[in-house]
Structures are given as C-alpha cells and as structure tokens.
Amino acid sequence: WFIKMFGANVNLGNIAPTEVIALETLRVGLRGDTFFQYLNA
Predict the structure, then answer these.
(1) Distance CA 21, CA 18 (A)
(2) How far is residue 35's CA from residue 2's CA, in Å, rounded to a whole number?
(3) How does pLDDT run across 14-36, given as a tens digit for each residue?
(4) Side-chain half-sphere CA neighbours of 39 within 13 A
(5) Residue 20 belongs to what domain range?
C-alpha cells in the first residue's frame, strides 16, 4: 500500500528479513513472489 501510495522510494522499517526480497521486487514493479523459485533452490 505504501509503495503504491507514495512511490518506490518510500522509507519502510521493521521489515522481516524473509520479506526483504519480496519487498524489493515490488519496488521495481515486479510481483512479490518473482524470485522465490530461486531462493528455494
């Protein structure tokens, strides 16, 4: 919601380490689950 409302450069805190990659993919406009197939390999 914050990324859509304020843009990709919004500051977010208290993000779980397991959610960082999903968050960064959302920032660049990809789906949040884009890289999970590579992480689980």
Answers:
(1) 7
(2) 21
(3) 889 888 888 888 888 877 666 66
(4) 10
(5) 2-39
One-letter amino acid of 3: I
Cα–Cα distance between 26 and 35 in angstroms, integer? 11
| First-residue to last-residue Cα distance in the chain | 30
- Can you tell me the distance from the alpha carbon of 11 to that of 19, in angstroms, rounded to the nearest whole number? 15
Q: How many domains, in total, are found in the chain? A: 1
pTM reported for the whole predicted model: 0.62
Question: Could you tell me the two tokens for 25?
Answer: 């993919």
Report the alpha-carbon distance of residue 14 to residue 35 in Å, rounded.
21
Q: What's the full length of the chain, in residues?
A: 41
